[in-house]
């Protein structure tokens, strides 16, 4: 005969309170394998970044460009004082040094045609492009009066034209500029005169006195790149106009200036964007003396990247793993409490592991297919497995069919949230509120004392 103490102990461990505590502990324990799955997704994403970096390095990296810039050397003088050791008199000495002045165009127009494609290596892909860029504009006669530099100290015959750029190794053709009535060829240089030394293109010496006119002197040049990820241009013209066309349907406009909304066009076949920037829109002058400033902060352009890649979607899906496991266990617990069917903690564990397998299936299938197809295949596989297992546990088909419908609705709801960007929080909050209301309704008659 059992004592009252033994009866109370037995009743507690058989009560709904004890059961839900054990299910809750199991849910927390399942976060450990779920974390391993998240680490796997992170590892595969890092591997993708490495492969993309390797592809981009061989094809061509991002393009950053501003030019043309007139680079004109001039002579300036510094006076130094010294004491004659014999006469003890102070002697003034005048030393000559060479410095450089940089002048930007009065008008600058750029037209760029960008053709993108996706390169694949194993299970990874990267967006690359080929761009044909045409520049034209004009210069007015350089003015040194602000620095009190006389014409005799200006080395007009040793001027050059400079283009600051990156990705020199992926320029596809020789770059020449038609300036005035003469053609000049650019050569690659390491521009150590810049504040931040960079790669650049520079012509040989030009005698500006023979080329510049009293009015405006026109120029034009073309440059073609193989590149990846982005194109950025600095608006160095007193008036800068840029037109860019591409077959890329998901452009991300970046930098200090956005294109004109009235003329911007984005469709499934590509985009067209136009910029017009005046010198009053950016905080640097049309000429600079000494070192060429770092103007990267004033650049603008377009990013050519996949908006949401497969690993980002898998990562977002895995973040809802705790919610899926918790709600699925809650459904089984409610069925157990209402129907008085006993479900062992081991059976809960098998169901939880099946739910975690969804994410390993999802990441592995996604690498060989689209995220949507992988999600459907993984979802159907896990729902079918849990439904068949539920038939053997619950001994009928009514509850398993309810579980299958519930899991199908839950996975569909999560897929919608993953695809949404601006409204993900709103839709998710409404959905969770509805789920909470349903749980409160079905659990209202549970006797927690038993």
Model description:
By secondary structure, the protein is α+β, with helices and mostly antiparallel strands. The protein has ten helices and 16 strands. The protein has helices spanning 4-13, 16-29, 31-59, 208-211, 310-318, 321-339, 345-366, 371-394, 398-419, 424-442, and strands at residues 63-83, 90-103, 107-121, 124-139, 160-165, 176-179, 182-185, 187-191, 198-202, 217-233, 239-246, 252-255, 265-267, 270-278, 287-289, 300-304. It has a 16-stranded mixed sheet that branches. α3 (31-59) runs antiparallel to α5, α6 packs antiparallel against α9 and α8 (371-394) runs antiparallel to α9. It starts with a helix and ends in an 8-residue tail after the last helix. The model is unreliable at 193-197 (pLDDT under 50).
Write the layout of secondary structure elements.
Blueprint: H1 4-13, H2 16-29, H3 31-59, E1 63-83, E2 90-103, E3 107-121, E4 124-139, E5 160-165, E6 176-179, E7 182-185, E8 187-191, E9 198-202, H4 208-211, E10 217-233, E11 239-246, E12 252-255, E13 265-267, E14 270-278, E15 287-289, E16 300-304, H5 310-318, H6 321-339, H7 345-366, H8 371-394, H9 398-419, H10 424-442
Parallel strand pairs: 1-10, 3-11
Antiparallel strand pairs: 1-2, 1-5, 2-15, 3-4, 4-10, 5-9, 6-7, 6-10, 8-9, 10-16, 11-14, 12-16, 13-14
Helix pairs in contact: 2-6, 2-7, 3-5, 3-7, 5-7, 6-7, 6-9, 7-8, 8-9, 9-10
